[in-house]
Design a protein that fits this description.
Blueprint: E1 3-9, H1 15-28, E2 33-39, H2 50-68, E3 73-83, H3 87-96, E4 104-109, H4 117-121, E5 125-127, H5 138-154
Parallel strand pairs: 1-2, 1-4, 3-4, 3-5
Length: 161
């Protein structure tokens, strides 16, 4: 059974988003071992300078990078310049991970300012959800839903239809 680490910067603040995540975590139990790792977001002033943002991303990147080092890991970084995949293409990618000799899928969601370049460099896949802009905290719910959909696709379930 594939292990999945959803590595996020920041915590979900809204109860309705936490509830949605819990629902998908429950649904995913039969398909994978899911672990959500919430890292602390660096505090920034209301109007941070580029230098302050870069320092925050670097600090967050160090914490993330430590979690991505391993021979059995397939790392996906969520970033705006990443590749867009259909649900079927994501399902196919996930299904092939064990064939690459990997037993753990790490998916990284950075802060609202993004992800440090050094983390992106450790990725096997840079993935973008859309060219549209979504609330940052909604990304976790959307990812969990797409993971559930991918496993249902790969197992011939009706959920996807």
């Amino acid at each position: 059974m594939l292990s999945i680490n959803l590595i996020t910067v920041g915590k979900l603040k809204e109860s309705y988003l936490r509830d949605a995540c819990l629902e998908y975590q429950k649904r995913l139990q039969g398909f994978c071992r899911l672990n959500i790792i919430e890292l602390n977001e660096c505090r920034l002033p209301d109007n941070p300078s580029e230098k302050e943002i870069k320092a925050a991303l670097s600090a967050e990147g160090k914490a993330i990078s430590d979690l991505l080092i391993g021979n059995n890991y397939f790392n996906i970084t969520m970033c705006i310049e990443g590749k867009q995949l259909s649900s079927e293409e994501l399902a196919e990618k996930i299904e092939k991970i064990p064939a690459y000799g990997k037993s753990t899928l790490n998916i990284v969601v950075g802060s609202s300012f993004g992800i440090a370049e050094e983390v992106k460099a450790m990725s096997d896949l840079r993935l973008s959800m859309s060219v549209m802009t979504f609330p940052h905290q909604l990304a976790r719910v959307m990812l969990l839903e797409q993971l559930y959909r991918a496993f249902r696709i790969n197992n011939g379930g009706k959920y996807h239809k």
